[in-house]
Design a protein that fits this description.
By secondary structure, the protein is α+β, with helices and mostly antiparallel strands. Helices cover 21% and strands 47% of the residues. It is built from one helix and three strands, in the order E-E-H-E. A three-stranded antiparallel sheet has the order 2-1-3, with helices on one face. The longest helix has 16 residues.
Length: 76
């Protein structure tokens, strides 16, 4: 998954991040996902959070309650 936006500060250089998010869906179900995302340099943590949350909203609808979110560089 790669973030893309018209106002990306620098779309040529990206960093790979690993995220984990747990949400409660409108039906009350708890859902946890994780993946990596290539983020253009210059994006904020808040923008990545919104990008990931929007993936859940597209699948489950709104409102989504975020119970847990973690974002770390995908390297050791």
């Amino acid at each position: 998954m790669t973030m893309q936006a018209a106002n990306a500060p620098d779309q040529q250089t990206t960093t790979e991040w690993h995220w984990v998010m747990t949400v409660q869906t409108p039906s009350g179900a708890i859902n946890t996902r994780n993946a990596t995302v290539h983020v253009p340099n210059g994006y904020t943590r808040a923008e990545v959070f919104e990008f990931v949350r929007d993936q859940f909203k597209a699948t489950h609808g709104a409102p989504i309650v975020v119970l847990f979110f973690d974002l770390q560089p995908n390297q050791l």
